[in-house]
Amino acid sequence: MKHFLRFLLSIVFLIGHLPAEEALRPNVILIMADDLGYRDLGCYGHEKIRTPVLDKLAAGGVRLTNFHSGATVCTPSRMALMTGAYPVRLGWTQGVIGHLIPNDLGMSPEALTIAEIFRSEQYATAISGKWHIGSGPATGPLAQGFDEAFHIKLSNNQTKQVWQGDTLDPRPFDNRLLTQRFTESAIRFIRAKSQQPFFLYLPYTAPHFPVQAHPQWAGRSSFGAYGDVVEEMDFRIGEIIQVLEELKLRERTILVFTSDNGPQADQPARATPFRGAKWSALEGGTRVPCIVHWPGGVSAGRVSDQLIAAIDLLPSLSRACGIDWRSKSKNQPKIDGMDVWETIAGQKTEHPRRSLLHWQGKSPVPQAITHDSWKLFFNARDAFEGPGIDFGTPEQVAATTNGRKTLGAENRAALFHLTDDPGEIIDRSTKDPEQTKKMLDLSEPLKAELSTGKLPFVSSKPE
Q1: Dihedral angle at the C-alpha atoms of 69, 114, 459, 143, nearest 10 degrees?
Q2: DSSP strand pairing (163-164 vs 290-293)
Q3: Which of 316, 380, 414, 463 pairs with 188 at a CA distance of 20 to 30 A?
């Protein structure tokens, strides 16, 4: 009877039509690694890094194999995750705050965030980790829907300060201890809010450079310091799960794990079978691991290759929790994300997303579009030249030489079939001119529409 009642509750949450009592709404913990490659977990095929906690979550939920980050670098990726919008709608043009974006700029507080949506439904909200969307009071997490914020404002290579709300944490900064400290803060929040629904955003700095292992984890893995850092992060997520079990919250909590973008090219990370890395619109820069786990709410033991993006999490998680996100939106900015919760949960319905635009890290103009199994680069140079391009297996990198040889002075498209050629090596644009034209025709209205519903970056400085 207990399991039957739990099943009925999950159905109420999933269809989103019947009002669930506030106290019974599911909690959400959204965990994001920093620069973690597609293959850097055991359940995604890494041969040496051990991630038993995340592997178990994947086995008990769904592992997404065609999930794409909001952008290929930190700041726009996090903006997209928070708002469900392509980052160009929020004033982004290139780079990250502190590199190509001045430190005193940030995302407008007028943007509707996932934290604001959940808080408006009486959820307690908190962030514990890396923000990197704005450094001042007007653009910090407390101005974007979070009740509590234990965070660093920039990347861990850009700052030596940790903040508790708007107050500087007095403890010495130690990059090696950040994963532990962010986890401890997250656990304190969970314990304090265990009697009400909560939304917890846990954006770890691991394994972003500088990769420095916790003193108790140094040398534990068989994949150097990078492996040490990833394995510690897996262990810390296990600590959070233990607390959920202790508080009898496990079956009322949706856990999502993903990465903000592909791996840093000079790190020993892996994105195989894909080519490309952070800063690149190739699959290695944009396709990242994603695991969703919710006992009774997400069918267990599944792998989905449906096209899903980080921008889809805002509408999808809202739907899972019975929240009408559309009623909150004033198109500030326009939400590009789609409700794909039925796909995530394992319901047999038609998947809504078939196309997705992609950006590299240094241009507000999209470089590519995916549609079903096809991917088109509008300019072939973006597939064969530029940052993060020569990141892949030695064989993949060597094979791109042929692609570079065909580049002329004129602009031309490059077409790849991702199922047959996940490394995006064989340009089929001349062999499949009809598919190339179809993709170009599909992209034009999507690109033209990006000028609508825009918000500018704003100053982070207090007035």
Answers
A1: -140
A2: unpaired
A3: 316
Place of tokens 């709410």: 297
pLDDT at residue 21, rounded to an integer: 44
* Topology of domain 358-459, CATH: Arylsulfatase, C-terminal domain (3.30.1120)
The pLDDT, as a whole number, for residue 51 is 98
Q: In Å, how far are 5, 102, 112 from 93, measured between CA atoms?
A: 49, 12, 20
pTM: 0.94
The pLDDT assigned to 2 comes to: 42
Residue identified by tokens 């809504």 is 352
Task: Write down the catalytic residue from 46, 68, 132, 151.
Answer: 132
The answer to whether 83 and 145 have CB atoms below 8 angstroms apart is: no
For residue 441, give the H/E element and its range. Answer: helix 433-449
d(CA 307, CA 81): 16
* DSSP string over 380-438: THHHHSSTTTT-S-HHHHHHHHHHHHT--SS---EEEETTT-TT--S--TTT-HHHHHH
Q: Catalytic residue among 68, 74, 321, 358, which? A: 74
Q: Where are the alpha helices (DSSP H) in 128-282?
A: 178-192, 224-246
Beta partners for residue 376, in sequence order: 369, 415
Calculate the average pLDDT of the chain.
93
Q: At the fourth CATH level, which superfamily is domain 26-353?
A: Alkaline Phosphatase, subunit A (3.40.720.10)
> Per residue in 5-57, pLDDT tens?
444 445 444 444 444 444 579 999 999 999 999 999 999 999 999 999 999 99
Domain positions in the chain = 26-353, 358-459
Q: Is 132 a catalytic residue?
A: yes
How does strand 96-97 pair with strand 100-101?
A: parallel
Predicted pLDDT at 15: 45
Tell me: the pLDDT tens digits for 78-124?
A: 999 999 999 999 999 999 999 999 999 999 999 999 999 999 999 99
Q: Where are the alpha helices (DSSP H) in 120-223?
A: 178-192
Average pLDDT over residues 290-300: 97
Q: Which residues contact 431 (CB under 8 A, 6 or more apart)?
A: none
Within 10 A of 450 (CB to CB), how many other CB atoms are there? 18
**Hey, which residues does 27 pair with through a beta bridge?**
253
pLDDT of residue 11: 47
